[in-house]
């Protein structure tokens, strides 16, 4: 298995360290994001070079483990991928504990049984799962089934409990901010209200940070249901003071006070018909009579090369994960706390979403520079 010259060089030089983990699988699950390949490289380089571990690449998230779609990864596979967007392993939103309706079911039991069987057949000592809330929740549930699991926090949404930052967020923030800058100049030229919708279904971190970075006049996030009357008043007041255009930054999950009160299923059905940004633009036009346009940025936010900051974070989290594998420190997710890389039990992110707290300083920062957060007094 270890047929690389580099590896023998390390043995001869005595630089291969002891490791509890000899063979591990690695997968990327959920939506992709910039920095996944940097993290894969971080885990694999350190695991291979420092500890001589055997690495099994699992294709397309948990689906690859169910279907035993795997291959041994050698240095050539994780070389030259630091700056590449996407994931060399492929990703899917397969949730092995759930059926297609999102419920635990007998079908799901078959998938979990296949995972347990393949984990043993492949002689894995651990699986490293790179993903968001769902991926780390599945990792936690698999660890309760007896598997060794190490998680890494990735997502452009920055909404994973137990870590201050997820990789992918900084890159998406740069893309979102650049888009707002570009929208700014066309808004100015045409004296329009421009709504730009950024990703973030349940958490508004991306819209809030990009909104502040891009100087949004109104920022709407799912955590603060908006009042269209308050938005209208803010826009009219801006125009009264001589501002001929306005920028509204909305998270895809932004919702009105009325929608927040609706039955969840009815709301989901209604919202599926029309993207948030377009709906808000229509509401603004009806409320104020101002000419309003919408842009839905979509998957552009998840594509392309990672920012320098995401490369550094993904590499640090990845190499720390390799050290945890070597120590046999399983059942945890690597995380960033302040400026330190640490780890939390997988039960911490499991089943949770880290939303923007009402007292977060960035909300006050936005208010302090005159940004309206969608309701009176906020
Ligand atoms: O991965 C997170 C995310 O980009 C969310 O911001 C967005 O709501 C969702 O994924 C989109 O999911 P999909 O890739 O399944 O369309």
Q: Helical content, roughly?
A: 40-55%
Order of helices and strands: HEHEHEHEHEHEHEHEHHHEHEEH
What is the assembly state of the chains in this entry?
single chain
Strand order, biggest sheet? 3-2-1-4-5-10-11
- Just give the CATH class of the largest domain: Alpha Beta
User: Architecture of the largest domain, according to CATH?
Assistant: 3-Layer(aba) Sandwich
SS strand fraction: 15-25%
According to CATH, the fold-level topology of the largest domain is Rossmann fold
Task: Tell me the domain tally.
Answer: 2
> In angstroms, what is the radius of gyration?
23 Å
- Stretches where pLDDT is under 50 for at least 5 consecutive residues are 1-5
Overall strand count: 11
Please tally the helical runs, counting DSSP H or I stretches of 4 or more residues: 13
How far from one another are the termini? 61 Å
Give the overall silhouette. Answer: elongated
What is the overall pLDDT average?
Answer: 94
In short:
By secondary structure, the protein is α/β, with parallel strands linked by helices.
Overall description:
With 378 residues, the protein is an alpha/beta fold. The protein has two domains: 5-167 and 306-345, 3-Layer(aba) Sandwich (Rossmann fold), CATH 3.40.50; 171-303 and 357-368, Phosphofructokinase domain (Rossmann fold, 3-Layer(aba) Sandwich), CATH 3.40.50.460. Helices cover 42% and strands 15% of the residues. It is built from 13 helices and eleven strands. The protein has helices at 5-13, 36-50, 62-67, 106-121, 133-144, 169-190, 205-213, 228-240, 257-261, 264-272, 276-288, 308-327, 361-368; strands at 23-28, 54-58, 70-73, 126-131, 149-153, 193-198, 218-220, 246-251, 292-296, 332-337, 340-345. The chain has a seven-stranded mixed sheet, sandwiched between helices. Strand 4 (126-131), helix 5 (133-144) and strand 5 (149-153) form a beta-alpha-beta unit. It is elongated. Mean pLDDT is 94; it is low at 1-5. Bound molecules: 6-O-phosphono-beta-D-fructofuranose. 6-O-phosphono-beta-D-fructofuranose binds next to loops.
């Amino acid at each position: 298995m270890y047929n690389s010259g580099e590896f023998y060089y390390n043995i001869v030089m005595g630089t291969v360290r002891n490791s509890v983990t000899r063979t591990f699988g690695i997968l990327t699950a959920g939506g992709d994001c910039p920095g996944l390949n940097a993290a894969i490289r971080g885990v694999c380089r350190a695991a291979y070079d420092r500890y001589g571990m055997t690495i099994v690449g699992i294709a397309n998230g948990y689906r690859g483990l169910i279907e035993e779609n795997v291959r041994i990864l050698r240095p050539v596979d994780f070389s030259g991928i630091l700056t590449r967007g996407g994931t060399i392993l492929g990703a899917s939103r397969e949730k092995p504990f759930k059926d297609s309706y999102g419920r635990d079911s007998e079908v799901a039991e078959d998938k979990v049984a296949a995972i347990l069987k393949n984990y043993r057949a492949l002689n894995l000592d651990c699986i490293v799962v790179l993903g968001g809330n769902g991926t780390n929740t599945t990792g936690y549930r698999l660890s309760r089934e007896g598997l060794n699991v190490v998680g890494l926090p990735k997502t452009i949404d920055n909404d994973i409990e137990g870590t201050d930052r997820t990789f992918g967020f900084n890159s998406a923030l740069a893309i979102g901010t650049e888009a707002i800058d570009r929208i700014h100049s066309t808004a100015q030229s045409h004296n329009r209200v421009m709504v730009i919708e950024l990703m973030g279904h349940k958490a508004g971190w991306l819209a809030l940070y990009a909104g502040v970075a891009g100087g949004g006049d109104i920022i709407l996030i799912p955590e603060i249901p908006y009042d269209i009357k308050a938005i209208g008043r803010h826009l009219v007041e801006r125009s009264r003071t001589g501002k001929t255009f306005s920028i509204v930054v909305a998270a895809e999950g932004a919702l009105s006070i009325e929608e927040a009160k609706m039955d969840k299923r009815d709301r989901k059905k209604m919202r599926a018909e029309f993207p948030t940004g377009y709906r808000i633009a229509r509401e603004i036009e009806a409320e104020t009579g101002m000419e309003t346009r919408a842009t839905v940025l979509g998957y552009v936010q998840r594509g392309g090369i990672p920012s320098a900051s995401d490369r550094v974070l993904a590499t640090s989290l990845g190499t720390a994960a390799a050290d945890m594998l070597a120590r046999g420190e399983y059942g945890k997710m690597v995380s960033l706390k302040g400026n330190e890389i640490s780890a939390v039990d997988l039960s911490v992110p499991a089943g949770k979403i880290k939303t923007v707290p009402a007292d977060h300083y960035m909300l006050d920062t936005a208010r302090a520079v005159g940004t309206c957060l969608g309701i009176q007094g906020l």
